[in-house]
Write a structure and sequence with these properties.
13% of the residues lie in helices and 46% in strands. It has 365 residues and is mainly beta. It is rod-shaped and about 120 Å long.
């Protein structure tokens, strides 16, 4: 090599300047086309952009992830009307893809054919937010036992986050996830003890996802706890006398609620004038022959229950004092007048007994 040329190559300033020119040339060539990554919701519209630098009219080709040509210099090459060319300038080429699905994901190639071929890849990512989750009951809820509930989000991308809530407190569960290739199925299973007090209580399953932001997809579920019935007879107020009517209401709870309520009289049959309508028993024109113990019974698949009421019918009236009057005959007061009581006496002997009892009560005897 000649000495002059050797000195030129070995000259530090010239070597540095040459390296800078080479790097700048490579940089300009690599930046001849730029692509932008895109994230879109499933079913939405994606904009895929290719930015051009120093464009000289060369051929621009856009290809899908399967390397099929979508557009050739602005002209459609693939018969898919979801793709539209919306902009073609010396600096920017932009296409849109409508009704995007997860199968459209991947790298879209922006290629510029000059002396050397330059290309960049725009990665399309499709996000699938979850729908409102569903709740499945795996085990029946019975008082004193446990209930198993499964919250299911069958399809999302990336996987949804599920959590159970009750009274604004999280219930820890077992989370499982299934990968279906493009989407994921997620479930959250809880097992909680229950009593009859929990019947009708609300629990909620919440699904969160990056595509939803701060929002939640929520499914509410009310616990259906099965338990044996309870029975209580609600008696009429006051004292019952001959000629009055009796009405007894049988209050029944249970889950499931018993379909039928059975009325009976212990060691005897119901009176001829007795009528039952649902949980109510009525007997008109009472007499002492109706005295006895009346029984209300109900049952379901989880047990049975009963309550009783002792009926005592009086054939005459006794004045019964208020608690603060000092009258030893009772803690209630009969509002009927003595003249009305005399009218109701059917036997003179009853009147004599009434007078004797009254005198005794007021301290005359």
């Amino acid at each position: 090599m000649r000495p002059g040329l050797r000195s030129l190559l070995l000259s530090p300033p010239l070597s540095i300047a040459l390296c800078v020119l080479i790097l700048l040339s490579l940089c300009l060539r690599s930046q001849a086309v730029q692509a932008e990554n895109v994230t879109v919701l499933e079913g939405g519209t994606a904009q895929i952009s290719c930015r051009l630098q120093n464009y000289d009219g060369s051929i621009v080709v856009i290809q899908n992830p399967r390397r099929q040509t979508l557009f050739f210099n602005g002209t459609r090459a693939l018969k898919d009307d979801r793709f539209q060319m919306v902009l073609f300038t010396q600096r920017l080429v932009r296409i849109t893809l409508s009704n995007v699905s997860v199968w459209d994901e991947g790298g879209y190639f922006c290629q510029l054919y000059t002396d050397d071929t330059h290309h960049q890849v725009a990665t399309l990512t499709v996000s699938v937010p979850p729908e409102v989750p569903t709740v499945e009951v795996k085990t029946e809820a019975v008082e004193g036992g446990e209930v198993e509930l499964v919250c299911l989000s069958p399809r999302s991308k990336p996987p949804a986050t599920l959590r159970w809530m009750r009274d604004r407190r999280e219930i820890q569960g077992v989370v499982s996830q299934q990968d279906y290739g493009k989407t994921y199925s997620v479930s959250n299973t809880i097992t909680i003890p229950v009593t009859m007090r929990d019947n009708g209580a609300q629990v909620s399953c919440e699904a969160s996802h990056p595509a939803l932001g701060t929002q939640r997809k929520v499914r509410h579920y009310r616990l259906d706890v099965h338990f044996a019935p309870t029975v209580k007879i609600i008696p009429p107020p006051g004292i019952l006398r001959e000629g009055d009517s009796l009405s007894l209401f049988c209050s029944v709870t249970g889950n499931p609620l018993p379909r039928n309520v059975q009325w009976s009289r212990v060691n005897d049959t119901l009176p001829e004038r007795a009528e039952t309508v649902g949980p109510t028993l009525t007997v008109s024109r009472l007499s002492q022959a109706h005295n006895g113990t009346y029984l209300c019974q109900a049952h379901n698949n989880y047990g049975r229950a009963a309550d009783h009421y002792a009926l005592l019918v009086y054939d005459f009236l006794l004045p019964i004092g208020r608690p603060d009057s000092g009258n030893p005959l009772g803690d209630e007061y009969d509002a009927r007048s003595q003249s009305e009581a005399l009218f109701l006496f059917k036997n003179p002997c009853h009147f004599l007994i009434y007078c004797f009892t009254l005198c005794f009560a007021v301290g005359l005897l």
